[in-house]
Amino acid sequence: MPQFLLARPDSWYVQRRVVQELLGHLRPESAISHPHLDGDMDNESPHRPEPFVFEDANDMFHFHFPSFPSADEISDLSSHPVLELIPQNSPGSLNDKVKHVLVIRKPLTFQEENMYTPQFSPSAFFRAIDEFRSGTEGTGQGASQDSWRIGDAFMYGEVVSSTQTMFDKNPSFLRALPAPVVSLATIQLAGRGRGGNSWLSPDGCMQLSLKIRVGLKGSSSGKTNWFSLLGISGSYCWVAGTAIRPSNLVFIQYLYALAVVDACHALDPSSQWAHKVRLKWPNDIYGLFPCDKPGSKMEPRKVGGILVNTSFGGGVADVVIGCGLNILNEPPVASLAQLASSGSSASSLSVECAAAAVLVSFERIWNSFLQQEEEGFQPFMDQYLRSWLHSDQLVTLATRTPHKIARIIGITPDYGLLRTVPLSGGEFIDLQPDGNSFDMMKGLISTKKQ
């Protein structure tokens, strides 16, 4: 199904800027000025911009500039009304590679949301963004026509293949797309998890991908060490403005996990259930649920996960952060609503509010990280360890021959490795987040099977 390219109503210019950047990539001669585009995308202009196609490795993005038909103009009442916004002669209705993107002139009205986005309310999402931002200070990136904040640029589709794949597997589109931008779907047909796993998307799940861009620090003398450590080849250069060491990119998954925990506390102002949300290394979100087993009071069950993909070029990293979080799911799927079922905040939970809370929290944490980037993860270590499930946990390291029993003691602040100490004594054993699998129930860490 098609996706809407939207923007926060008070920052509607962001939608136009996204289109301009994409057109500038396709037609470099018009990168500075786009004749008729600005005027044609104005609410009062009688002209509509011409549709265009952005073809990439995995998908072909068809951008349309529709007008909404009246109710009596909708020809097929048996299909989803949003399909009426795609021109009848548009190719690709049966081609999975074709992704239709609808660029509308103004924010959806309440009636239009009920018709075209009945499973998700963009206006409720943007209101929640404003509400959660009102409680933060110093997190903005400026209000110029060339910058905007996380959550201001927003793509929504009721049914998509994968929000992560749409960004991550289309390198030209990813590079041309300005940042930050969010893609959210109600249903994913091919959702992705870490290490090639699938992510199921039952009703009530928040599924989004956020694209950010950050410059990379470096010099010709330091390039080989940093990039060989991360398994990256190629050249890169200094980027003016905000930049981080390449080795610090690993912390993005931990920072986003902290943002999920922080968002849960924002969604639970009376502190009735958010303290039950915990982190499993390296990228899973768990909840502590009542357990029926004798001698056990609480049982950890997975409610979400995080997937980070990074693309490098021209001295910058384009980072795509995918997150699936069960918000309103019914049993047997564990969800935040079930954690909050006995609390007064349960009735206020929604996918719209949860997505807004996570994005606003991540923006605050990410900007704080950038300001203290030289310190690595150290400023966030205590908060992370308070939120995770593993303090002093004993594990069997199947990554060693013979297997070793070790105690988990934390995360290394420089490279984000899981630090363990063998019970038999000796030096620390540090484990990379990528390439290792952690079976928490069995207390077993092993090499991840590809």
Automatic annotation (TrEMBL):
Pfam families: BPL_LplA_LipB
Signal peptide: none
InterPro entries, alphabetized: aa-tRNA-synth_II/BPL/LPL, BPL_LPL_catalytic
A GO term, aspect molecular function: biotin--[biotin carboxyl-carrier protein] ligase activity
Residues in BPL/LPL catalytic domain copies: 139-370
A single Gene Ontology CC term: cytoplasm
PANTHER family registered for this protein in UniProt: BIOTIN PROTEIN LIGASE, BIOTIN--PROTEIN LIGASE
Protein's name according to its UniProt entry: Class II aaRS and biotin synthetase
